[in-house]
């Protein structure tokens, strides 16, 4: 089983080391981790052509994977990295299993109220523009969390030290165990389609 | 041609009116706008089951659409709404055309540097955690912008008044014109697959 390793850790200065460790954890559970970057690619040119080459490479890698484990840790705001959210949608549309974890345990509502001056209104929680803050008891937007729930799993959330937020792999490892369990029970059966 | 209308305007207090106006603009260009909500659904229960019902409904709506026009305006941080990013990935994986617009013209780099205390380092722009800030001259993360470029289009960006950021439909209307042009030239030919 090939597992696409989606997450904003590609932006870390030690991205390759963190991704290698993710691959190692997968291997310990008889899963093949597929990182978006592995050091074999040339440094991208800082142009839209460079960006497009990475985008196309990641899409091809995803098409060749049976499931995705997404790092849904809030990134530069109350919600997760949008590139990773895109990849969850991509894999979901292909009918592949979508698993996810976050190194912040607070729910979306709590985080958004805190970071975006949310307030209680007669119709629910809203931000200063009057826009609703989702209140479904989930960790993030209902489309991304919904993909994990539809995959018969749960987003694994636990809070780490701030400094370790994008490095700590404890929740990731729990997610890999969950993937191995879903493979063992036949819930994940390769590149089949879930509707 | 059926156009899925993705964007965070679903969170506006006047969401239905804004979405109706989007549908009207589509109709003026002989396109059928498909909003995620249209007032016919019951109010969702504030539970994960309520969230999951919306998630499943949106996924089914997307499967029945030929293209998506995504509102990529930065939402509660330097990047776009993650639910909309998920939907762009979903449509991209199905091979449908992905178009997008933003009511903020600044690029991702400028916005992230401003909002997240970015600084120039020897390896490029980084945030306070040392994580790279993408510098490809794009409006947002390379996966979301890449999907639009691969669809042979451009993200249409223009800055509106702050108060009109999630209401102004000028850039959306330009995006609909672009969709109509791509249909006329045969670039969009219905639910075919782009790789």
Report on the structure:
Two copies of one chain form a homodimer. The first copy, chain A, has six helices and seven strands, in the order βαβαβαβαββαβα. In chain A, the strands form two sheets. Chain A has a five-stranded parallel sheet with strand order 2-1-3-4-7. A two-stranded antiparallel sheet of chain A has the order 5-6. With 195 residues, chain A is an alpha/beta fold. In chain A, helix 3 links the parallel strand 3 (67-71) and strand 4. The radius of gyration of chain A is 17 Å and the shape is globular. Chains A and B meet through helix 2, helix 3 and helix 5 of A and helix 2, helix 3 and helix 5 of B.
Q: Largest interface, per-chain counts?
A: A-B, 64 and 64 residues
Radius of gyration of chain A: 17 Å
What would the principal axes of the Cα set say about the shape of chain A?
globular
H/E element string of chain A? Answer: EHEHEHEHEEHEH
Helix content, binned percent of chain A:
25-40%
Quaternary class: homodimer
Number of helices of chain A: 6
Termini separation of chain A: 20 Å
Task: Kindly estimate the percentage of residues of chain A that lie in beta strands according to DSSP.
Answer: 5-15%
């Amino acid at each position: 089983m090939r597992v696409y390793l989606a997450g904003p850790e590609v932006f870390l200065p030690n991205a390759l080391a963190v991704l290698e460790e993710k691959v190692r954890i997968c291997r310990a559970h008889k899963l093949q981790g597929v990182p978006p970057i592995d050091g074999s690619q040339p440094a991208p040119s800082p142009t839209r052509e460079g960006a497009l080459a990475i985008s196309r490479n990641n899409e091809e890698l995803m098409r060749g994977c049976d499931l995705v484990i997404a790092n849904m840790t809030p990134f530069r705001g109350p919600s997760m990295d949008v590139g990773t959210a895109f990849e969850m949608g991509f894999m979901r549309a292909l009918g592949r299993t979508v698993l996810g974890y976050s190194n912040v345990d607070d729910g979306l509502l709590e985080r958004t109220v805190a970071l975006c001056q949310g307030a209680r209104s007669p119709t629910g929680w809203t931000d200063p523009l009057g826009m609703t803050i989702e209140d479904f008891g989930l960790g993030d937007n209902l489309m991304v969390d919904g993909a994990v729930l539809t995959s018969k799993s749960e987003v694994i959330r636990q809070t780490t030290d701030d400094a370790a937020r994008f490095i700590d792999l404890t929740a990731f490892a729990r997610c890999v165990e969950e993937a191995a369990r879903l493979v063992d029970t036949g819930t994940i059966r390769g590149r089949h389609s879930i509707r």
